Amino acid sequence: MIAAWYDSQGEAQDVLRVGEIPAPDPGPGEVRVRLLLSSVNPGDTKKRRGWLGSTMPYPRVVPHSDGAGYLDAVGEGVERRRVGERVWVFGAQSYRASGTAAQCTVVPGWQAVALPDSVDPNLAACLGIPGITAHRAVFGDGAVVGQTVLVHGVLGGVGSLAAQLARWNGATVIGTVRTEGDADLARAHGTDHVVVLSDDEAVTQARDLAVGGVDRIIEVSFSDNVEFDAAIGKNNTVIAAYGTREDRPSLPFWPMLFDNITIRLLGSDDFSREAKLAAAADLTAAASTGALSIAVSDPLPLDRITDAHDRVDAGTRTRVLLQIPE
Question: I need a surface site. Which of 105, 163, 200, 245 has the fewest CB within 10 A?
Fold first, then answer.
């Protein structure tokens, strides 16, 4: 099969290669996905760079965890009627060597999710890491119908999906951005209430918008925002954090203690199987009704994977996809 891979960590142009390698066969309980699209996440490029001192987990890595395609083979214990099924796939390169930057990948059967005909495969290919993280951030402590959810970084990959999932479940959503220009963009993308964090009155604005207080805060940068979060929290507010700029953040302990605030930390690779299955079901259901949208750039061909990684490393507000050759 045609695939992209790296045998050592480093800059994209130095380590990424494209060529032919043997196609994998599914084992018991596994399926093989014939991929049409592969999504590039920041976590994929961090693994390639050796972020936070990470090392090569396998001698060769075919990168990327997310994608979309169809099943062309199944292993023992998987119903053969699934062959030919349209799917989106997540976690392909989570604790596994071979991800979605290839014509085929093999995953446990439950990680290849049936894709309704109504869902655009470009959207489906982007649901994995950001969608499952967003789902856990929103629903990790139950439904949010009737609650107020504040989503930091509402224009980001996880933040945007978190806001959409919370609205889909009946929550009032407040999104935050860093600049007034971003606020206009967030409103244009359908965010009902927007707070600009650089505004001196940001805390007051958030409190005024959150009638009865904020129930849940979806946090993209805990170290930067924890003082703000503590100021707008109420008794039993949950802060669900999936990112931080400083790896040892300080926090206002006593005010947060007296508000009985819960801090939920989210590492998506190690969510339970049950949590991932619940997320996959809800993401598929929401997407099939048109409740989810993702800004996606035109897919690049697989042989431009270096450009794709460079775009993600440079920062982009549109998702980067690779078109897998037939």
Answer: 200
